[in-house]
Design goal:
heterodimer, A: 317 residues, mainly alpha, Helix Hairpins, 2 domains, 0% strand, B: 202 residues, Arp2/3 complex 21 kDa subunit ARPC3, globular
């Protein structure tokens, strides 16, 4: 039963109708659960929506918890570079007895501390009345459920993982630039800012081109510093956008290529199957042995499909 | 496969009905037990822990809808504990139900459930106990014996959990005897393995 639950809840594990339906259902529930936030006053209908959606999202949390061992296996297999989907699924769903790990209970202990589990639980807390109404904003975290199932979000996640070092350097650079600009401005125009935090606030809003206009330099030197820092600052601030966009396009193109390759392979397999059936029918009519013919066809297929030295499962994704 | 799905559906539905029905009866006759996790335990025992977890969740959801309060979700921890303890503890390595484990499993359930329910009662209901028997025991412990509120709630919950667990265990034993073979796990349908005789070894 756990295995079946896992194939239903995990995106991309089950090719069946129910798995796809579940993905859509949870996305709708996650969006619906945020609806009560759009109203100032609570009504019985909104309260019911809140309770029902919270329970469904909690059920999803429980299902993920009790199948976390499979999720970890899937992650390990994916980290090992296994790209073939069927092979990945069979490895992931291997019974626990065949598993090399003896500590089968560990995944169930660590699940509540995983980032997605913490986020899920935090997003449910406001509806349970255990934290003050000021923390209602945590419900917004439920939207991550939707993003979790979204392909676009997965591209972004891949980019952030891939470019984490570069993005960290850019972030340090941007923060340093804001800090230095605020420091210079604060020392030249101490009258404009009440404290250094205000200078930081001005530098951030100016360099990110937001510019609320509530604080601005008044002296000529201050304005000159502002002009220069904005010109250079815009380049620094725009850097991460470029990195993420480039990474996103790369991830998108790569995925497109993989999908096209998978579609080509499927078409080829269908064509081969049709050929096999046609041959069997025609040879049966001629009175030849269909088993011998099938064997010949398989040999022919194997030699044409698998280049020398390449593993059988690596080319299918 | 279809039969297995039907078996799961039937026992899980029975578990939900048992939880609600027996709880309602126990409350109506002011019995010194709740029986609100008997169906959860049955699903965990005759199917698997996951089935018990789902049955407990359905009952908890029903309670939340009927009371209009989502905070009942916290009490799910008690149902989940029962499902896991029964589902895991009552089976031997070969996957068969092991009735020898019944007593230790019952003791674990009593202790774990009390440890879960006591802080929840104190935190969410300010230590307000629900059944007549709990209130009697609580007042006896606190007024006559001078126990603090915390220990009073703990003691009352613990003392009610004992007959509750005993009654649930009796129901499970009865169910095991009455349940048709077709509704049992394939491992439990087979006769137990007999130790091979010395003649056979020779």
């Amino acid at each position: 039963m756990r295995k079946r639950i896992f194939t239903i809840i995990q995106r991309g594990m089950g090719d069946d109708y129910l798995s796809k339906l579940y993905d859509i259902f949870i996305m709708i529930v996650a969006v619906l659960s945020i609806v009560p936030m759009m109203f100032k006053k609570s009504t019985p209908a909104l309260n019911t929506i809140d309770i029902v959606t919270v329970y469904i999202l909690f059920a999803d949390y429980v299902f993920r918890w009790i199948t976390y061992d499979y999720a970890l296996k899937l992650k390990t297999a994916a980290d090992l570079g296994i790209k073939n989907h069927k092979h990945l699924v069979s490895l992931t769903l291997k019974p626990a007895e065949e598993s090399t790990s003896q500590r089968v209970w560990i995944p169930f202990i660590i699940y509540p501390f995983s980032p997605f589990a913490i986020m899920d639980l935090l997003s449910l807390m406001p509806s349970l009345g255990v934290i003050s109404s000021g923390w209602r904003i945590l419900r917004v975290l439920r939207i991550f459920k939707v993003l979790h199932y979204s392909r676009a979000f997965q591209y972004i996640e891949t980019v952030f993982k891939k470019e984490s070092k570069t993005l960290l350097y850019v972030l340090i650079l941007a923060l340093s630039y804001i800090f230095v600009t605020a420091l210079i401005m604060f020392s030249y125009e101490p009258g404009t800012f009440d404290d250094f935090f205000e200078a930081l606030y001005w530098a951030t809003s100016a360099l990110t081109t937001v510019g609320y206009g509530d604080i601005y330099p008044v002296s000529n030197i201050g304005r000159f510093i502002s002009m220069i820092s904005s010109l250079f600052g815009i380049a620094v601030i725009a850097l991460p956008a470029g990195i993420v966009t480039a990474g996103f396009i790369d991830a998108f193109n790569e995925d497109k290529k993989l999908q096209a390759k998978a579609a080509r392979k499927k078409r080829k397999q269908q064509k081969q199957r049709k050929k096999e059936i046609a041959l069997m029918v025609s040879e049966k009519a001629l009175g030849l042995d269909p088993e011998t013919l099938k064997q010949d066809l398989r040999t022919e297929k194997d030699t044409s499909d698998t280049p020398a030295g390449e593993k059988e499962w690596t080319d299918e994704t | 496969m279809k039969h297995n799905k039907l078996r799961y559906f039937f026992i899980m539905a029975l578990g939900v009905i048992m939880n609600e029905g027996l709880y309602g009866i126990a409350r109506a006759i002011h019995a010194p037990f709740w029986l609100d996790t008997s169906g959860t335990a049955a699903a965990a025992l005759f199917l698997e822990p996951t089935a018990g977890l789902i049955v407990g969740l359905i009952n908890n959801f029903y309670m939340a809808i009927s009371t209009g309060d989502a905070s009942n979700l916290f009490y799910y921890a008690a149902s989940a504990a029962v499902a896991v303890i029964v589902g895991v503890g009552m089976r031997d390595p070969s996957g068969r139900i092991c009735w020898k484990n019944l007593l230790p499993v019952m003791v674990i359930i009593v202790v774990v459930e009390t440890l879960i329910v006591t802080p929840l009662s104190l935190w969410m209901d300010n230590g307000m106990l629900t059944t007549v028997w709990e209130k009697i025991i609580y007042s006896k412990l606190c007024s006559d014996w001078g126990w603090s509120k915390l220990w009073g709630v703990f003691g009352a919950t613990l003392l009610i959990k004992i007959p509750d667990t005993l009654a649930s265990a009796a129901i499970l034993v009865g169910m095991n005897a009455l349940l048709p073979q077709a509704l049992k796990n394939p491992e439990d349908r087979k006769p137990p393995k007999q130790p091979s005789s010395p003649d056979a070894i020779q």
